[in-house]
Amino acid sequence: DTGVSQNPRHKITKRGQNVTFRCDPISEHNRLYWYRQTLGQGPEFLTYFQNEAQLEKSRLLSDRFSAERPKGSFSTLEIQRTEQGDSAMYLCASSTPPGQGMNTEAFFGQGTRLTVV
Amino acid sequence: AQSVAQPEDQVNVAEGNPLTVKCTYSVSGNPYLFWYVQYPNRGLQFLLKYITGDNLVKGSYGFEAEFNKSQTSFHLKKPSALVSDSALYFCAVRVDFSGNTPLVFGKGTRLSVIA
Predict the structure, then answer these.
(1) B33 exposure class (CB count in 10 Å sphere: 0-12, 13-18, 19+)
(2) How does pLDDT run across B85-99, given as a tens digit for each residue?
(3) Considering only CB atoms, which chain A residues are within 8 Å of B8?
(4) Contact B108, B7 (CB under 8 A)
């Protein structure tokens, strides 16, 4: 499978615990995005990387959230001291920048569903 | 700021009939528009995009969309709906040419095709 891979698919955690999600993008894609999707809503942008550089962060990304992409390949999203409001589907996507296909579309993984109890 | 509106939460259509899922956008520059589909417990799958050129864009699974600059719309269409088209559809927009800004999504429209 050469698509975007996310692990785990599901995570149930107790409020206050820390969780970490992993995303493996399509191998030749140097852009990687994290989105959050809650029930009945479209995906909301959280942050994105070009190679290992984190280029933009949404105001939705509170200080409890941190994302890394240390070697420009896979990425991790960590949520510290989880709250019930963090329950959502966390989606990862990857793409190539313009010039390698001019504004190419983003390819999404299947997501990690987080439930905070 | 850029935004997308999908005015219908739900669209119902009989199998074999044409379908339309509506999308309007608001941007301060030239829009780059996308449609994605989401099946239950799955990620988003790309359907089609408008970047420039012909206003009628053809995509996967027989879907097409028409870019209308004067009406700021990018409605998704299919001439003959299938039951398997039942899913959640998202319209998205990006405003910058360089792609340095992320996609902004609408809230989604649930399409139900009835046999």
Answers:
(1) buried
(2) 999 999 999 876 566
(3) none
(4) no
- Smallest Cβ–Cβ distance between A98 and the set B41, B98, B103 belongs to B98
Structure confidence by residue, pLDDT tens digits, A48-87: 999 999 988 988 888 999 999 998 899 999 999 999 999 9
- Spatial separation of the C-alpha atoms in residues A91 and A109, rounded to whole Å: 6
- Report the C-alpha gap between A75 and A51 in whole angstroms: 10
Backbone angles phi, psi at B61, to 5 degrees: 60, 25
Q: At which residue do the structure tokens 């990387």 appear? A: A49
A4 touches chain B (CB under 8 A): yes
Q: Is the pLDDT of residue A103 over 90?
A: no
Q: Which of A73, A28, A65, A27 is nearest to A49 (CA)?
A: A73
Helix locations, chain B, DSSP H: none
